[in-house]
């Protein structure tokens, strides 16, 4: 393993001479260039981790010979070409992580085929994670009868309806199909999935009634940003641990406010400013401006309403860590010396998507200022200095920051950066969404350390 050593340059071809090599882990470095086709001769290779480098080119066709492969990870790179169908030759494969690698879709259904290896059906596929995949639209891939524990196909441009066979995959612990273009009803046989630990259908086009089992006994389910039409659940943005924020069709709603907040009575005088200390207590900063507290408990599928005119929707849990209860507020790990440091002592975190939603706002043009500081990683020679946080930011549905790296933008860790934007309020609401598109490190300093982070938000006309 050469994990996180700041190694640069291409992968040496001579590694292919180590015929007994079983594990080649080079993730979290700065390797670049194309992968040597000679690596395809490592017939004993079982684990190949290439994530978070700068690799380019197509995956070598010689990799088809790596039939002992069990764990393959190539996220956060700059590969080209399509996901290769030769993956179906890896009949012992248990873990496949492609988040986002540069490869484009659609996902070839052939890679899920049960091929025979020495006369035996061997493909296990316990963990499948493919996310943020560019390419043409495609229907849901045929997964076959796989006993998976993690099925993540997030933001893969998948269209059509949810396949009923997913309801038979009762071994699942995580089912994440968020931010696709899935439509239609949730199949009736999905009630067999009530013991799945996490279900994310966020950001699709699902319609019809929400199945009663989800509202009555489902746990950690996120249905936000869909087009459901069931009026019985429409009056609440949160039911138990089910996030219903913006999950219903707008219908004849002329107010612009999401339906689950429609019963909220706006004051006669609308709000024309908003200041939030994300993840922290109420403070005064920027002179005499009061920033509201945001110490509310968040989770993998939660919507929280503040005491004034904004709410917070949080989607996602931090994968692979051993912590029973995730924390969604980060506290600084070193001394902060910037002005108004009280805004940056704490920050709000999310594993996938984080939305701040302001309402009862007066219409007009506003300046939105987003305050950031990287307060988890360090700038010394410790392991935590290898961390890299990358995410996207949307305002009013428009992408305003792509691949934001706070540390790079601010010129180091523990330093503040304020990003100003102009945005219009036309229906009394303002939406600011942060989204983790699968880039950056995910295990530094600990497993599960990744995702969008924000310190404060200010909104003024």
UniProtKB/TrEMBL annotation:
It is a single-pass type I membrane protein. It is found in: Membrane. The keyword ATP-binding applies. Belongs to the RLP family. This is non-specific serine/threonine protein kinase. GO terms for molecular function: ATP binding; protein serine/threonine kinase activity. It comes from Citrus sinensis (Sweet orange). InterPro entries: Leu-rich_rpt, LRR_dom_sf, LRR_Rcpt-Like_S/T_Kinase, Malectin_dom. SUPFAM superfamilies: L domain-like. It is an enzyme of class 2 (transferase). Its main location: membrane. It catalyses: L-seryl-[protein] + ATP = O-phospho-L-seryl-[protein] + ADP + H(+); L-threonyl-[protein] + ATP = O-phospho-L-threonyl-[protein] + ADP + H(+). Keywords: ATP-binding, Glycoprotein, Kinase, Leucine-rich repeat, Membrane, Nucleotide-binding, Phosphoprotein, Receptor, Repeat, Serine/threonine-protein kinase, Signal, Transferase, Transmembrane, Transmembrane helix. Residues 273-457 form the Malectin domain. Pfam families: LRR_1 (PF00560), Malectin (PF11721). PANTHER family: LEUCINE-RICH REPEAT-CONTAINING PROTEIN DDB_G0281931-RELATED, PROTEIN KINASE DOMAIN-CONTAINING PROTEIN. Its EC number is 2.7.11.1. The keyword Membrane applies. The lineage of its organism: Eukaryota, Viridiplantae, Streptophyta, Embryophyta, Tracheophyta. GO terms for cellular component: membrane.
